[in-house]
Amino acid sequence: MAVTVAGTNAWFESDGKAVNVDLLYTVAKGSVILVDAWLGLAGESGDSGETIALIADDREYMFEVPTGTAVAKGDIVYITIATVTGHYPDDEAYTTTAGAGKWAFFKATAAKDANDIVKGVMIAHNTLLT
């Protein structure tokens, strides 16, 4: 147990690398999803009404991005929150341009390859600050 500045108790809950979310739609394990105002990866498959773990850590992953989205090493890839259907970001949701309604998702550690794969460090949990 820890004590906060105000002197009230605070207890350890989790390491914060995953958050339980309640699904409204079916999702596949490993998919990029937006649920309960959390952007991350589905830690498991789930159906509407189920609770699953959404991964929101800062490890490096390989992400598939839409063909039309150019990504260079060092770019931050954002998800436009208004362009999500059934927990899944639409192709138009992916962008490297910051702005209102766009959440930082990952920072590229390599440029997009010919198969539309980008290596990057997920920073979705940092959207808490926006």
Strand order within the widest sheet?
7-13-12-8-11
Radius of gyration: 16 Å
Q: Compute the number of structural domains.
A: 1
Oligomer: single chain
Helix content estimate:
under 10%
First-to-last CA distance: 29 Å
List low-pLDDT spans.
Answer: none
Number of helices: 0
Instruction: Give a quick account of the main beta sheet: strands, pairing sense, barrel closure.
Output: 5 strands, antiparallel
What is the tally of beta strands?
A: 13
Could you explain how this protein is built, in words?
With 130 residues, this protein is mostly beta strands. It has one domain (2-129). Helix content is 0%, strand content 40%. The chain has a 5-stranded antiparallel β-sheet, with no helix packed on it. Strands 3-6-5-4 form a 4-stranded antiparallel β-sheet, with no helix packed on it. Strand 5 and strand 6 (51-55) form a beta hairpin.
Task: Write a brief caption for the model.
With 130 residues, the protein is mainly beta. 0% of the residues lie in helices and 40% in strands.
